[in-house]
Amino acid sequence: MKNGYAWTAICLNVLASTAGNVWLSHAMKKVGDVGELWKQHGLRKVIGRILTTPTFFLGMLAMAVAFYSLLFGLAWGTLSLVVPAAASLTFVANAFAARLFLHERVGRRRMLAALLVAGGVALMAI
Amino acid sequence: MTFRKYLVLAGVTVLSPVGDALLNLGMKQVGTVSLHGLSSLILATMNPWVACGILFLIAYFSSYMAALSWADLTYVLPATSLGYVLVALIAWIGFHEAISPTRWLGIALITAGVGFVAAGPSLTPAHEQGKPAAREAVSQEVRP
Q1: Integer angstrom CA distances of residue B71 from A33, A34, B8
Q2: CB contact under 8 A, B106 and A28
Q3: Which residue from A27, A105, A34 is spatially nearest to B74, judged by alpha carbons?
Q4: H or E segment and range at residue B39
């Protein structure tokens, strides 16, 4: 039963962190290159622009859900299951979500990179 | 890619593991924090190592946001995953922890993944309607 709860927490973590990354990426693309913005208008403008982008707050909220679901996952499952499973599945889920929602061109090179990193993260946590 | 952008990616890669290591060092000094004594968690932030760790993690998040403002999510995440390797190396060199052959294989896979993605462009045009929407969004003029 505990394993079932742990996998529920892992799934929630993967979903929340993927949604968080997609929303944050969307928000920052709307803001524009912060380096250029800072150079031209100063730090206050950068912060103001970020804080007036709604998807930034959605991203932060999703990241908070991801953080707490990881904590719950660690309470129900073992460290060697929860961390590698959540981290490696998140890499693959992000690649699909970025293609679907951000319309990024996830070619063979990037998909292979995501799979290699996901496999590497899983191996490192064993 | 400019030197400044490589610096931001290096920041994302390095700041998070260093921040985690500092938090780890500080929390070892603070000791166990129970759910019933949450005030001790607030007191833990007064520990210089924990405070430094939090500052590093704030800097990490700022660099991550900056990287996302000019690069694809599918570029930033794998390109900065060398942080996992860095944590293992800090644990190996700094804390004399043993690294198993499986972990070395994991390190090799992550390094290969980073190499694959880093060799490609940091920003790809959106495939929808053949419009380079992402690039436009990044290079758009500053709104008044």
Answers
A1: 9, 12, 11
A2: no
A3: A105
A4: helix B38-44
CB of A93 within 8 Å of any CB in chain B?
Answer: no
ipTM: 0.84
Q: What pLDDT was estimated at residue B4?
A: 85
Cα(B12)–Cα(B68) distance, integer angstroms = 11
Number of domains forming the structure of chain B = 1
Whether B144 maps to a domain, the answer reads: no
For A13, the token pair is: 């973590």
Domain holding B50, by residue range, is: 3-139
A39-81 pLDDT, tens digit each: 888 889 899 999 999 999 999 999 999 988 887 887 787 766 7
Structural domain containing residue A65: 2-124
Q: What is the pLDDT of residue B36?
A: 66
- Closest-CA distance of chain A to residue B6, Å: 13
Q: Nearest Cβ partner of A117 from B68, B78, B125?
A: B78
Length of chain A in terms of residues written: 126
Residues 6+ apart with CB under 8 A from A30: A53, A55, B137
Q: Which of B63, B74, B117 would you mutate first to test chain A, the one with the most A CBs within 10 A?
A: B74
